Amino acid sequence: MIIGVGTDLVDFRRISRLLRAHPDSAIKKIMRPSEVQFYKGNIELGFSKIWAYKEAVIKAANKTVGFADIEIFHLDSGLSQIRIINDEQLREYASRVIGKHIGCGRLTYHATLTDELPYISAVCIIEIC
């Protein structure tokens, strides 16, 4: 059952300006160390993509998670995956949405990202299995 859908569209130029104005605090607030490492060759583009991904996840989760709770990681194939570090509030929200305690129900995250610079768009669907 789908419990949330979120989407985000960012303008790479705007996010780059934000990152240049506040590099350390912006990276610390938005990105996890593994994400910084993955995008170390092009941190502005990586930061913008992570921003779009995480905003889409936050919206799909009805704002029950924040930037620090979300990790975007990549498989060897390059496919992006989502890991929620602390999903307790999201699970409570899912229980309310489906009208019963989900206990051991598995949350699955589906996400995709596309870019045609200067725009980057992400979509996230959260499903309970």
Description:
- With 129 residues, the protein is α+β, with helices and mostly antiparallel strands.
- It has a single domain (2-128), classed as 4'-phosphopantetheinyl transferase domain (Ribosomal Protein L22, Chain A).
- Helix content is 41%, strand content 31%.
- The chain is built from 5 helices and 5 strands; from the N terminus they run E-H-H-H-H-E-E-H-E-E.
- The strands form 2 sheets. It has a 3-stranded antiparallel beta sheet. Strands 2-3 form a two-stranded antiparallel ribbon.
- Strand 4 and strand 5 (119-128) form a beta hairpin.
- Helix 1 crosses helix 2 (23-30) and helix 1 packs across helix 4 (43-60).
- The longest helix is centred in the middle third of the chain and has 18 residues, at 43-60.
- It is elongated, with a radius of gyration of 15 Å.
- The relative contact order is 0.23.
Strands ordered across the widest β-sheet: 1-5-4
Distance between the termini: 7 Å
CATH class: Alpha Beta
Structural class by helix and strand composition: alpha+beta
**Which regions have little confidence, pLDDT < 50, spanning 5+ residues?**
none
SS elements, strand count: 5
State the shape.
Answer: elongated
β content, as a range? 25-35%
User: What is the average per-residue confidence, as pLDDT, rounded to a whole number?
Assistant: 92
Percent helix, as a range, is: 40-55%
Biggest sheet details: 3 strands, antiparallel
| CATH architecture classification name | Alpha-Beta Complex
Give the number of domains.
Answer: 1
- Find the CATH topology: Ribosomal Protein L22, Chain A
- Counting DSSP H or I runs of 4 or more residues, the number of helices is 5
